[in-house]
Amino acid sequence: MGKTVEFLFDFGSPATYLAHKRIPEIAARTGAVFDYQPFLLGGVFKATGNASPISVPAKGRWMLGDLGRWARKHGTPFRMNPNFPINTLTLMRAAEALKGKPGFDRYVDAVFDAIWKDGENMNDEAVVAEVLYAAGLDGKAILEAAHSDEAKAKLKADTERAVERGVFGAPTFFIGDEMHFGQDRLDFVEDAIAA
Amino acid sequence: MGKTVEFLFDFGSPATYLAHKRIPEIAARTGAVFDYQPFLLGGVFKATGNASPISVPAKGRWMLGDLGRWARKHGTPFRMNPNFPINTLTLMRAAEALKGKPGFDRYVDAVFDAIWKDGENMNDEAVVAEVLYAAGLDGKAILEAAHSDEAKAKLKADTERAVERGVFGAPTFFIGDEMHFGQDRLDFVEDAIAA
């Protein structure tokens, strides 16, 4: 049984999508298990005083080119979503509702691809339902679960817990107490798995 | 004759120090010439709305561990300066005064090492003078040149020019018009040299 890497994700982060696409290959190479943990990046920004890179226009312009270079380096299909920034509140609540249940992995794959590969407008719940049905999931049931008090409370609690652990952005990885930030730190994640 | 990589630096950035220490090996491997260009990071922050990572405490804590991991990965002697953040205004003006003259490279090496290897308090001009004399440079003359109107005007102009070119942090690299940000992007810099 390999080590567990906690992968704290929010669908709204393109860097998190790039990491998500590299995880299967790293898991296969190292035997590590990646435990996907939803949190709300906007909530973490608010609590920590951090902000999206695009809040600095010059940084946003550089980031766009930089993400493209990372995508090409690893052969990851990627294009910037025309609706960026995305409000991921419902999408992340749905992830909480599905976590630990059948369909979670398929849901995560479908939402990441819809946003960062296919350019879908996932701010629109009708589009979300369509995307989920196309992935073989019950879109209506998932959206209902997303709007449940339980899913809302889970996302709030997981976001607060992330802040307590020192999270300030996405993606964030934990190997035990060791925290890594950024899709560009997957080499350090692999080092920590091997250590 | 290899390609030219413009290296925009401010001594106050620990990530820029880490890049500086890797440049000789990259220059030797690729034949590229690294053209060191002073600018004032604080001025760029002010003009772009960017801020030091340490302005977000959780990011600052992560960054400290992250810089240590990069230093160990490349065998770079490094410790966080106890006087961080450093006011580099005089140090950068001196770099402008020396640029293109004998002693520039030695000055750059001496100041980077004093801050990020030896933990010196380079906010204190007496310490700066001592460090420069120890490196075989005329500390008094260099500080006088730093206080000249010409050096002040050069640093101001170079900082404004950096902002115009899209710079928002340090270190920044240009290969022609292609801009890379961060010591963690030296692989992309090498790709651009090879392209």
Keywords:
195 residues; alpha+beta; Glutaredoxin; four-stranded mixed sheet; 4 strands
What does this structure look like?
The structure is a homodimer of 195-residue chains. Chain A is 55% helix and 10% strand. Chain A is an alpha+beta fold and 195 residues long. Chain A has one domain (4-194): 3-Layer(aba) Sandwich (Glutaredoxin), CATH 3.40.30.10. Chain A has a 4-stranded mixed beta sheet, sandwiched between helices. The longest helix of chain A is centred in the N-terminal third of the chain and has 17 residues, at 14-30. Chain A is globular and about 45 Å long. Chain A binds chain B through residues 48-50, 55-59, 61-62, 65-66, 69, 163, 166-169, 179-181, 184-185, 188, 191, and chain B through 48-50, 55-59, 61-62, 65-66, 69, 163, 166-169, 179-181, 184-185, 188, 191.
Briefly characterize the structure.
Two copies of one chain form a homodimer. By secondary structure, chain A is an alpha+beta fold. Chain A is built from nine helices and four strands; from the N terminus they run βαβαααααααββα.
Which helices and strands occur, and which strands form pairs?
2 copies of one chain form a homodimer.
Chain A lengths: L3 E6 L4 H17 L2 E6 L2 H8 L8 H17 L15 H10 L5 H13 L8 H10 L4 H8 L2 H16 L7 E4 L2 E4 L4 H9 L1
Parallel strand pairs in A: 1-2
Antiparallel strand pairs in A: 1-3, 3-4
Helix pairs in contact in A: 2-8, 4-7, 4-8, 6-7
